[in-house]
Amino acid sequence: MTAKQILNVALIGNPNTGKTSVFNQLTGLNQQVGNYPGITVEKKMGFCKLPYNFKANILDLPGTYSLNASSIDENVVIEMLLNKNDHLYPDVVLLVTDVENLKRNLLLFTQIKDLELPTILVINMADRMKSKGISLDIAFLEDQLKTKIALVSSRKGHGIEALKELIVNYKSLSTEPCLNASSIDPVYFDSLRKTFPNQLLYKLWLVITQDVNFLNLERNEIRSRHTRSHADLKRLQQKETIKRYQFINDVLKQGQTIDREKATDFRSRLDRVLTHRFWGYVIFFMILAVIFQSIFNWSKIPMDFIDTTFANLSNSAAQNMPPGVLTNLISQGIIPGIGGILIFIPQIAFLFMFISILEESGYMSRVVFLMDKIMRRFGLSGKSVVPLISGTACAIPAIMATRNIENWKERLITILVTPFTTCSARLPVYAIIIALVIPDQYVFGIVNLQGLTLMLLYLVGFTMAVFAAYVLNKILKIQSKTYFVVEMPNYKLPLFKNVFINVVEKTKAFVFGAGKIILSISIILWFLASNGSGENFNQAEKIVFEQHREKPLSNEEFSNAVASQKLENSYIGQMGKTIEPLISPLGYDWKIGIAVISSFAAREVFVGTLATIYSVGDTDSEDTIKDKMKAETNDETGEKVFSFATGISLLLFYAFAMQCASTLAITKKETNSWKWPAVQLVLMSGLAYIIALTAYQLLK
């Protein structure tokens, strides 16, 4: 037995392609498990007998999506492929792919081919091809990809012997790359080639862009002679990825046929319905309707309990604590302010629960695929749907999620329009206003008007986001191309544990993140509402007494009148009166105006602000926040402040306004400019004002 008859075979592939199953088929029980030196990543080695008395050491490398490393696992793969001096350096690479996700899997294949290693393309799960309606032109694929292809079923053991034959004959494999990746920047790569003429060009590129070394070349030496900024390197990596997917799309367009109509498995039959050009949208909107109906119906009892509990707690603190500033702060500032946000925990938790279930079940990926057909008409793609849907939780992580969009124009547009999507911070505002102005009635005995209104507000926000994207796509003159790749996971029953943890973590993050802002603003607002200057504030009792000298008030009426006089002439009252001429055409009084301004810190502060303002000077009332808002009347007209017209105006204002400083900050960070946050603030706030003004004037 000669050394050449013992081959080193590296098994590489994306996660979930059945790579480990192929490894087990090749090695059986002849396996060893250990760790790579100095790290905790698991190393699996196996021994395999091949035809013609050959044997092989099979190394099962960690799963990786590409050679653009983002984890220790992926670094292990890159360093193994770069270091020829390693005793396990592969004679041949088996690149394992899943027949259902060839487009995604082939990205890694094209990168490894650029390393000029003998590579066999192993297409796993071939037994599913017929049931999935998939057919492959193997001869065409082998010619275009410049390799040999092994169709295997690791589950059934089919094709393993043919794979062993290909391994033995690895020397006949072409090591020519599939495409010329250096064409993304010919000048830069030509310079790199001339500086290191004896090194493989793609290895040099990996050393420059990844945190790895090979041979005797140091990264610093290479980078010092070919200095490029981090942003430039990222841009080139994105261009490389797009170029590879262009090549893959062109190859699969002719080499792979997917006829969903011929597919017979359960997943394919279900996909035909859920991604149908008509019924797919009908089912999606029906699911949304059920979600929003449930948010109102299921959360009503716990919300009423929390509301009443905090009203009683505030009243108890006022009655049982000694009179003074501290008691007023706690009973009129802190307790109502915190209660104004905690009341909405049930609705927020239900929203996150439904989103988690849709993601866990695999349905959310179908929504992304389904919406891609619509989004392309507006200058976006299915990739933009992920941030827009994520925006229902919070715009900040949603904007950060745009980083996976390679197309800068598409990414910028998505960043700018995502705040239109109704986030969970708007939910408290929507919920309290809807409860005040929309009747709790049912249409056809099953559709709740309040739940229907909430759903319409979500649809209005999403529709405006898409319309704004269309306008921006026409205005922004940025040339670019987009390639949409989405992975369709198998359907599965959501794990209760995963859903529960997701709901708890996201609700906790929402409450504590907003709680800090709400508590501080509640204290500031209480101070501004409890103090003032001038005769109208300092001599409030005397003024009220003089006003009602002819018709004296009862003790309770007198106390309420004095509290109202002080509040109106407090610091916050003076601020509200100053802006009232600007907001009165929208149907808002000075109290609502203060709440709108303070909610710029965070939208959900709106309710907490009103709860604080209405509680100042109110020492013995057990009324809930909702009761106080419902009872509020205009001093001049005697009409309800929260009328139907005012309520609709408020709902539409918050649907369109940029009422979040944190979102502006993250937009600045992601675009590296104050220009785009300024555009967001001015245009969205202006649009919100005009629409709210129009709605109020038409409905009043």
Molecular structure report:
The chain is of the alpha/beta class and 700 residues long. It folds into 4 domains: 3-172, Rossmann fold, CATH 3.40.50.300; 181-261, no CATH class; 279-475, no CATH class; 510-699, no CATH class. Helices cover 60% and strands 8% of the residues. It has 31 helices and 11 strands. The strands form 3 sheets. It has a 7-stranded mixed β-sheet, with helices on both faces. The longest helix has 42 residues, at 279-320. The mean pLDDT is 80.
Unreliable runs = none
Structural category is alpha/beta
How large is the count of helical segments?
31
Global Rg = 32 Å
In percent, how much strand structure appears in the residues?
5-15%
Number of DSSP strands? 11
Q: Which sheet architecture does the biggest sheet show?
A: 7 strands, mixed
**N-to-C span:** 95 Å
As for the number of domains, it is: 4
The overall pLDDT average reads 80
Into which percent range does the helicity of residues fall?
A: 55-70%
* Strand ordering within the main sheet: 2-3-4-1-5-6-8
Dominant shape = elongated
